[in-house]
Structure formats: structure tokens, C-alpha cells
């Protein structure tokens, strides 16, 4: 099953084509293409993402990113639409209605997308929350227009589900196809490289630690599509605090990679920053107090060592995340642990989870996404959509709306 996926929840314009097979028991994915247009430079001077600027950039980028994704996936054919798929006035009017609030997007869509022959995909998936609603709407309306143009069903996907399944994605795996043998018999190539894919199967119950700029959550997964948030931040998300502390230290944006870079040169035990709620039996997080502690330390120690501050702050966050995760694993007897979200790219967090996993629960299996798939991308949205497509849980375009505060 091939799915074209669109992700515009924040400041990344992303479109991917993934192919999934194996069903619910052995879900396996191949990434045919994964195109991303970053807006980091646009927002860096503001120190954070500006919603209306993000929406404007999505309008400018979506058509270009779509063509890049289709070309990479060898699904775009530069030829006129076939007679079997006529472009009627009724269809054009429907597309115009879907894009009536994005005139720039409609202009680009009409110019570069309308003439294309429909690609060979089975469905179109799009993030509908959580995220910045102006940005989400752009992707949703673009998906609706494509669905109308190509007569494809649409799947609305929760962005956080994408971060959960990102650990299943393997860019080295090819989709199973039949090949001709010397004797003329057909044989599947699902063995070999694809045999390796079976080791990525999740054993349930599973626990997901999702850490990003907008969320810090512990999610219990009893089976695919059965998610329950059992712990979350009560104030600032971990990724958000990374950004704010980076700003205090006059580092660049986004703050997560900058903190990690500087922390490598520092002493993580130099400053005893608090570990918020680490002894509480609750599985919730709180990072606003840690942010304030860093602020006061910088105020009271004007000759501070930037490397030590970054390393000590990072260690405080990581120790808190791992302590809460360990408690959740033991309480719910999780067999698998999944790390997801932008902060999942943090090398120190990945290393400590790897070495401490066995102490959490005997036989616990750890699933880490590829670093390039930790930030917002459409491949993970396509993978999450695969499970909904199996159950034919398609969205009604008229009822698909942006939900900025959507929960799992």
C-alpha cells in the first residue's frame, strides 16, 4: 500500500511517499521519498516559530515539495493528464473551494499540479493536529485539493502518532516485489534485507516517551491504534525549555542541538540543578521550575561557564525523563520502549536510555528512530496512516478540520 503524506504542523513543509505491508502483525515500511523544506532561517531571527509566517511559507513550498517527493519516489510523470481522468469544471471548482483561503497556494497548485497525471498512490494522509492551526490548515486544504484532483481517499493523522511509529521506519528496506527467476518462476524478495525488518516489530504492551518542543508525554500502547497518555508535562515541554535556556545562553535556534553541542564540552555534574518531580509517584513532568533555576543561576553567577551550564541543565532534563520512564515501564510491565519527538535526536538521551533500559525491565526492547526522522517529517505521518488505511478509517473532507490542541 502506497501512501502520500503531508506534514505542516509547525515550520517544516514535508511530503513523503511510503509503502507499507505486513498488516498489524508485522508492519514494515519502505520510504520511497521524504522531502522537507525547512523554515528555520525564516523564524530564527524571531527566536521561535511565528504562525502566520509558517503558513505563508507552507503556501509557497507545498507544490514544490510535492513535485520533489513524487519525482524522488518515481511517481510523477511529466505528461498530460490521460483521457480516462478528465479535469472537469466541477472538479476545478471543488479544488478552488478547498483552497479559497490560500490564494497563493491555489495559484501555484493550478500552475504546477493540475496538469500532472495522477500518481500511483492508494491514499493521501495529512496531519490535522496538534500544532499551529494556521500551518495545519494549509496542509489540510492542500490534501483535500489533491484528493479531489486525483480521486484519492484522505486520512487525518495525529502528529504524535507519527512520532510513535517513526521508530519503525527504515530507509534501507525495499518494498516486497516479485522478481523472475532463471526457471521463469516468480519469487518474492521479501527475504534478505526485508528479513531484517521483522526485528523492528513492537512487542506489546509498549511505552512511548515522546519529547518535543510542544509535548513531553508517556504513552501506553496496548496495540496499534490503542493509545493512552499516562504522563505529560504540567507546564513547559522539555524541547521548549531547551529553546529557552539556549536563548538565555545566547545560543542559536533551534536550541536543542545548540545545547547538546555546547554540553559536550562541559561537566554535567558541575551545577546541581533540580530534577523536577523526580521523586513524585506521578508520571507527569514539570520543567518550568528548572527553567527558572537556570535563569537565577545565570543572574547570580555572571562569570558562569556556558559549557557547564548547558551540560548540567541537559543532565537534569535527561535524568528526569529516564526516571519517569523507568517508573512507567515497571508499573505497566512494558515489553517495548519507543523514543520519539525532536528531542529524540539528543545523543546523550539516546545513549543513556540504551544503557539503562535493562535496569528498567528484564527483556525490555528499545526502539530509537533514525536521527533524520526525529524532527517533523511526513514519512512518519504516512506510516501512522497505514494502520488507519488497513481499517479503512478514511476522513470526510468536509469534516476534516485543524485541531491545534488535539490529544492522543
Distinctive features:
408 residues; alpha/beta; Nucleotidyltransferase, domain 5; 2 domains; 5-stranded mixed sheet; 13 helices; 12 strands; 40% helix
Question: What would you say this structure looks like, in words?
Answer:
It is a single chain. This protein folds into two domains: 2-178 and 374-399, 2-Layer Sandwich (Nucleotidyltransferase, domain 5), CATH 3.30.420.40; 202-369, ATPase, nucleotide binding domain (Nucleotidyltransferase, domain 5). The protein is 40% helix and 18% strand. It has helices spanning 40-44, 51-72, 89-98, 103-112, 133-150, 159-165, 193-197, 238-248, 255-263, 288-300, 306-332, 347-360, 379-390, and strands spanning 2-7, 12-21, 28-38, 123-129, 154-158, 178-180, 186-188, 206-211, 216-223, 226-232, 336-340, 365-367. A five-stranded mixed sheet has the order 3-2-1-4-5, with helices on both faces. A five-stranded mixed sheet has the order 10-9-8-11-12, sandwiched between helices. The two termini are 25 Å apart.
What are the segments in which pLDDT stays under 50 over at least 5 consecutive residues? 171-199
SSE order in H/E notation?
EEEHHHHEHEHEEHEEEHHHHEHEH
From the 3D coordinates, which CATH architecture of the largest domain would you assign? 2-Layer Sandwich
Quick check: average pLDDT? 89
Shape: globular
**Major beta sheet, strand line-up:** 3-2-1-4-5
Number of domains: 2
Query: How would you characterize the largest beta sheet?
Result: 5 strands, mixed
Number of strands: 12
CATH superfamily of the largest domain: ATPase, nucleotide binding domain
Taking all Cα atoms into account, the compactness measure Rg is 22 Å
- Which class of secondary structure composition applies to the elements? alpha/beta
Amino acid at each position: 500500500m502506497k501512501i502520500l503524506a503531508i506534514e505542516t504542523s509547525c515550520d517544516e513543509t514535508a511530503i513523503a511517499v511510503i509503502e507499507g505491508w505486513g498488516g498489524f502483525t508485522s508492519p514494515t515500511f519502505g520510504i520511497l521519498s521524504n522531502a522537507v523544506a525547512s523554515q528555520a532561517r525564516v523564524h530564527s531571527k524571531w527566536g521561535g516559530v511565528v504562525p502566520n509566517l509558517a503558513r505563508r511559507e507552507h503556501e509557497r513550498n507545498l507544490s514544490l515539495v510535492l513535485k520533489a517527493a513524487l519525482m524522488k519516489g518515481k511517481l510523477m510523470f511529466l505528461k498530460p493528464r490521460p483521457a480516462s481522468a478528465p479535469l472537469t469544471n466541477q472538479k476545478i471548482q471543488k479544488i478552488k473551494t478547498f483552497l479559497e483561503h490560500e490564494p497563493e497556494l491555489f495559484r501555484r497548485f493550478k500552475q504546477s499540479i493540475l496538469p500532472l497525471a495522477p500518481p500511483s498512490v492508494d491514499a493521501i494522509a495529512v496531519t490535522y493536529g496538534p500544532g499551529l492551526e494556521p500551518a495545519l490548515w494549509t496542509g489540510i486544504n492542500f490534501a483535500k485539493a489533491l484528493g479531489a484532483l486525483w480521486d484519492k481517499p484522505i486520512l487525518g493523522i495525529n502528529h504524535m502518532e507519527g512520532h510513535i511509529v517513526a521508530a519503525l521506519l527504515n530507509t534501507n528496506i525495499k518494498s516486497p516485489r516479485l522478481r523472475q527467476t532463471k526457471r521463469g518462476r516468480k519469487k518474492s524478495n521479501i527475504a534478505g534485507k526485508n528479513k531484517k525488518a521483522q526485528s523492528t516489530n513492537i512487542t506489546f504492551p509498549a511505552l512511548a516517551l515522546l519529547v518535543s518542543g510542544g509535548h513531553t508525554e508517556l504513552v501506553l500502547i496496548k496495540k496499534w491504534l490503542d493509545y493512552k497518555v499516562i504522563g505529560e508535562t504540567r507546564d513547559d515541554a522539555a524541547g521548549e525549555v531547551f529553546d529557552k535556556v539556549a536563548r538565555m545562553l545566547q545560543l542559536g535556534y533551534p536550541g536543542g542541538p545548540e545545547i547538546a553541542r555546547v554540553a559536550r564540552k562541559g561537566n554535567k555534574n558541575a551545577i546541581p540543578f533540580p530534577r523536577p518531580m523526580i521523586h513524585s509517584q506521578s508520571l507527569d513532568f514539570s520543567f518550568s521550575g528548572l527553567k527558572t533555576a537556570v535563569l537565577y543561576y545565570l543572574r547570580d553567577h555572571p562569570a558562569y561557564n556556558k559549557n557547564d551550564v548547558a551540560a548540567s541543565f541537559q543532565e537534569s532534563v535527561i535524568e528526569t525523563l529516564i526516571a519517569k520512564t523507568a517508573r512507567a515501564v515497571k508499573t505497566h510491565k512494558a515489553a517495548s520502549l519507543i523514543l520519539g519527538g525532536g528531542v529524540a535526536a539528543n545523543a546523550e538521551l539516546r545513549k543513556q536510555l540504551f544503557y539503562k533500559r535493562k535496569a528498567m525491565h528484564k527483556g525490555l526492547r528499545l526502539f530509537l528512530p533514525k536521527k533524520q526522522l526525529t524532527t517533523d517529517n511526513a514519512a512518519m505521518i504516512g506510516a501512522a496512516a497505514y494502520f488507519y488505511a488497513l481499517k479503512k478509517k478514511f476522513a470526510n473532507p468536509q469534516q476534516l478540520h485543524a485541531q491545534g490542541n488535539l490529544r492522543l
